[in-house]
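Our working data are protein records whose layout never changes between entries. An example says more than a description, so a record of this kind follows.
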Amino acid sequence: MILTVTPNPSLDRTYEIPALDRGAVLRATADRIDPGGKGVNVSRALAAAGHRTLAVLPLGGPAGAALAGLLGAEGIEVAGVPVAEQTRSNISVAEPDGTLTKINAPGPELTGEEAEALLRKVGERWAGADWIACCGSLPRGLTPEWYAELVARAHRAGARIALDTSGPSLTAALAERPDVVKPNAEELAQAVGRPLATLGDAVKAAEELRSCGARTVLASLGADGQLLVDETGSYFGSAPVAVVRSNVGAGDASLAGFLAAGGTGVAALAAAVAHGAAAVQLPGSAMPTPADLDPAAVRTTDQVPCDRELSEPVP
């Protein structure tokens, strides 16, 4: 069982349109509403693949109730913490060429009591979990050290932690030695304070995160593939993608595949790549099922082509 923690979940509505024309009345060709938030998406990907998962998250107002209902409909067990302010709603606009425009609401402001209640809820439910995946931004009211405290408590209880966040929250948590961190290219560059132009730059940045406390780094590099850097070395994986329909939640699907495959080693990297490649070919934040995966298309190697330039360098 994999327990996920999403401190700032959302309802995500996605509109598909022919083109984004500012100031015009646009007619969507399709639309959908999904449960949102990075940890929520990890749970959705796990459930879609037939794995047991439990989602711990704050829930407020009608949007929170709707979110819990959508998760339940997907077969996900929900451990909600009631909060006074309403759960946020986000909007994504997807164009046929893969361009995605997102509007993310700030979300509720949690009180000190609500922040502590969320920590307690995780502690009440982590017994029997193979992994705890803590994912996403922190809502207003939570300090950057909130994730660090959660990692410390989990480790004292003997639990394994995967962390997918960025900025000060990531920096603060590294001192508690999370078992896995999963940045994307932009988050990786931000964490080390320098640009990334090549795969070699990304490897060096991942190694720096390990020197700061992360035990394993799984880095999503978009169309360029994924890196795994751990105590045994550096590994690279990629898979061809015919058409990118939406990249919302693709990194979360990758983390779900990685953890479901054990959370360590090249086989887990291959699972992460397969899940990410499948997710970008689906609409909105739909999560891939086993039928969507193409493991045979994944290529992994311990010979990282460090001189290869990133298709989208991070300044």
Notes: The mean pLDDT is 96. The longest strand covers residues 10-16.
